[in-house]
Task: structure prediction
Amino acid sequence: MELQRLKRQRATDEVYQALRHGILGHLFKPGERLLIEDIAAKLGVSLTPVRHAVQQLAVEGLVEIRPRSGTYVASISPEDLLETSEIRCALECLAAELAVERITAEQLSRSREILSGLSQPIETEEDRKRHEENNMRFHALLIEASGNRKLAEIYESLRAHLQIARAHSRESGWADRLRQEQSEHEEIFTALQSRNAERLKAALRKHIFRAKDDLVAGLAGQGQ
Result:
C-alpha cells in the first residue's frame, strides 16, 4: 500500500482523507513519525494543506504533534482502549434507549441483512475487510436509528481509535472470536427487534467489553 500522488492541487480535506486512510490502513504504524515534506511530495501538494490536515488529525486524536520533536501517529495503550470502550458503551446504550422507540422497519431490515453478511466465512484478506466494514455498519445503524445527530457525530470520532486498535493488534484465536462475536450480534439484533431496551443495553455492554479485552490482548501480543 502506498500513498498515491494527487493529480492536482486539492483542498485540505482531501489530503486529510488520504492521510487518515493511510493511518487506518496500516500504511503508517503507531508511533511512526510523519514527515510533512515527504508526504507533500508524494501527494503532489504544497506543505500548507498537509499541515492543515495534520491539525485535523491531531484534533481527532489520530496523530500527536510534539513541540520541537515532530508529528507522530498516535499510539494506543490498554488505558486508551478502556476509556474509549467506556465512552463507546455509554453512547451505544443511549442510542439503544432511543432506537427501540424510533427504529424503522427499513432499518431493521438493513440490520438483518448486515447480520447475515457478518455470518459469512472469512478465508481471504478481502473477506476480512468486508467483515470489518459490516461490523462497523452494524453498530453505525444502531446509532443512526437513535435519530440523534449529535450523538452520531461524537460516536464517529471514537470509531477511528477502534479501527487503529484492530489494525495493529496481533490476531490469534480469530475463528473462536468470530463465533462469539456473531452470537453477541445476534443477541443485539434480537433485543433491538423486540424493542427491549434493557436487554439491548445488556447485550451491548457484554459485546463491547469483551471486544475491548480481546483488543487489549492483541496489543499486548503486538508488543512482544
The longest helix spans residues 197-223. The CA atoms of residues 97 and 198 lie 8 Å apart.
